[in-house]
Protein: Major royal jelly protein
Amino acid sequence: MPSFKQSILHAALAMALAMSVQASAEPSTYDIVARLNQGPGNVTVTETGRVIMSQHQFYEPAYSVVELKGTDAIVPFPNAALNDRTGMPGLKLDSVLGLRAAPDGVVWMLDNGMRSGVTPKLVGWDTQADRLHRVIYLPPPVTPKDQFVNDFAVDPVHRRIFISDPAGGADAALIVVDVETGAARRVLQGHPSVVPENVDLVIDGKPLQVKDAQGHWVRPHIGVNPITEDLQNEWVYFGPMHGHGLYRIKAADLADDQLPPETLSQRVERYADKPISDGISIDRDGNIYLGELAENAIGVITPDRKYRRLSQCPNLSWVDSFSFGPQGWLYAVVNKLHQSAPLNGGENLSKPPYFLIQTKPLAFGQAGR
Structure:
């Protein structure tokens, strides 16, 4: 039986631990902007304040990309025709996840094409002129058979788009797209900065599991997913979703198609520790925001390269993507993706509402990023 002194010591340790957890995560530092009936994928906000969201393909949405009108109305973006996968042949948005609003008013949408088995592509829509800006196709070998082009960063200085492709894990890579010519290159394939680590994602006590082709339960490990670029367009930050490291490389090096692959690999820098996370964003001071998936939390990696939680709440169930708005707010979408059929052994346990939230960042950022 423990002594009185031991009991006091245990109580003191428990109290200290509780105080430490409270200090590291403020429970209600966000607001719900909209309750959504369809699971969102990613979000971007234009400089004029338009909120554009992809709807996650794991939930089989009617529209791949939508715009929020007010606090509850959802309309297809940029229009219904481009989202109509069952209509006449032609350009269609099939399976968009990543999207970003560029400073010039173009909203870029990354369509992995997986629902219909079509070639992945980038589609740019000019929101100022309300017309198609450009389509850039990403055929093999830039995208392998197991591609899952997911998220990206737009660099207006180097005129490049940097895409994360977790693919099958071992063949994860970044894709560099020249916006002027449409030329694309697959780089850093298989590099430690993009392949997943052997770490499992456990949410609410339940490990993320899928069934393989033989019907066996396996715990997926997903490669590079989070990616963003600082506001100076100097550094690109990225890392595997299933991984405890965030990496960076100079945008100029990624943009240089004359740089040998070995040299490019050597210029990757491990920047900081991170939890298992999906999308990320960055403010003008270099604070990097992410969703801590295992803990239903939002956190930040500060310029001293240390991670800390900002918010933690059951409502923050798989924070997938971030975007700054023009008024300084940081927006994010919450989609309970671990409960979707593809990540839950074929059984969909996810139910609305899903959320678009906003939180006050440590510093202002750039709208759309």
